[in-house]
Structure formats: C-alpha cells, structure tokens
Amino acid sequence: MRIAIIGLGLIGGSIGLGLKRCNVEGLTCQVIGISRREETIQAAIDRGAIDEGTTDLKLGVKDADLVFICTPISLIIPTLKTIVPALKQGAIVTDVASTKGLIVAQAEKLTPKGCFFVGGHPMAGKEKVKLEAAEADLFKGATWVLTPTDNTDKNALETVAEYVALLGGKVMKMEPKLHDLVVAGISHMPLAVAAALVNTIAEAKEGQAEMKKTAASGFRDTTRVASGDPILGVDMFTTNKAAVLKMIVAFKASLSNLEKVIKDGNAERIKAELEKAKSLRDSIYG
Fold first, then answer.
1. Global pTM value
2. Answer CATH for 2-174 from 2.30.30.60, 3.20.20.30, 3.40.50.720, 3.40.50.300
3. What are the residue boundaries of the Prephenate/arogenate dehydrogenase domain, all occurrences included (predicted)?
4. Cβ density class 234-252: b for 16+ within 10 Å, e for less
5. H/E element holding 262?
6. Using the 8-state DSSP alphabet, how is residue 113 labeled?
7. Interval 153-182: pLDDT, tens
8. Which of 196, 201, 197, 194 is nearest to 227 (CA)?
C-alpha cells in the first residue's frame, strides 16, 4: 500500500507517525510526504513520519493508493484540482477538514471516474499545529468522522475506515450537513466564545492589567482554543458560515437568558441554569 500525505503539520505528521508505527506492528505500507518546503520533508523523514518526500504534488500522488489531504481548509479543493490528473485508477482521496459540506460537494464533482473521494474529519488536535507537535497516538480513542453521501463508493469508505482504525481512531459516519452543524456547536463555537471572551478583556477600559495578572486556571481552560492558529479559525468560520451563525444566535439567546436571571437576582433560576449546564457537560466527560 502506497500512502501519500499532503501537508506535514500536526495532523499529517501524526498520520505518518501512526502509519509508520503500524509498519513495525506488521502493516506493510510506504508513506510519501508532500510539503511546500524541503526542510519540512527532511524533518518528517528524521522523525520517522514518512519514508520519502517531495515538494511536487503530482509526483507525490502518482502511484498512491490512498491520499490524505491535510492542508488548511481553504487549500483542500485547489490541492485536489492539482492532483486529479496524476491520480492512478482506483486511488482513494480523503481529507481532514473540520467542515465538510462545501468540500465534499466540490470534491465529488472533481474526482474522476475510477477514483474515489471520502470526506473525513479527525476530532483531535492541539493549539500547536506544526510537525514538531505531531505524535503517533494523537488519534488514539478519538472520534474520526467520515461523511459519505449517496455517491460515495462503499469499498473506498471501508478502506478509509480501516486505516482510521489502524491509527487508533473511532469511526463515526455522518452526512456532511449534519456534521457541519455538529462541529459548529462543539468545535467552532468554542473558538468563537473563547475569542470573544479574550477580546472582551483586551478591550476592557478598566482593570485590564489586573485581570491579566490574576487570570488563573478558569480563564486559561475556558480560552485555551483562542491560542490556536488564527488562519484555521478564519477557514472554519468562512466555510461553515451558516451553521456557525445559527449556533451564535442560539448562544446569544442562552447568554441573554443568563443575563436576565442574574439581573433579576433570582438565585433559584441562576442555579437551574448552572445545573443544566453541569448535567450536560458531566454526561459528556463524566
């Protein structure tokens, strides 16, 4: 099995490290890394994430059986357009983007007959997005959403699912539109809320210096995702605009409700709101 990974950051590097570990455990595959910079390719080879690499997209995927596109969201479709002429018959292409509707629709139109596209999104990551942060166990126990449509080839879907399982991921299948609403709520909105909270402090006219000096674990944990790469956030919000805006409306309504009960000084209703939040969060994380 010849596997190409386009983009050798946190996700692409972790896929490579995971696959190479599987090689040691009995899987036979050759991993080719594709990056814009020779230095990144060499670093990935040195780390044992890939067997070989190239800066040439078409050359890198020419003989690949499976291609992971691990670029920023805005580059996935342009990348697919570039590699399509070089794909061999039977090649399977998947991606790791956190939005799926637009990507899957466009990718299915672009993928030539005899080749296959399967939308994917590993629900794993860190604030650090470069190769240095990659780890073989990044996907262990993590949900990896695959987003098949009526056009998705079943054998290609199962092949991608098998490799997700080899990397330690737990496959969940979901149609693209539902996926985008789900991630708007549990992935994109946390960034929106964290950024808004941090910017509230950044724009505070009074007490800002003291807030920064006294900020402890509560502020740190609530705003952790605000330390991520802003470009990733731009891609999330622009490619999943409708779902994110829908969740922002719902969040503003929830915040307004909390504002009202606090303003009214109604301790029982404040408690009820906090208990409702605690109950749902505890049901997710225990």
1. 0.90
2. 3.40.50.720
3. 1-286
4. ebbbebbeebbeebbeeee
5. helix 241-264
6. T
7. 999 999 999 999 999 999 999 999 999 999
8. 194
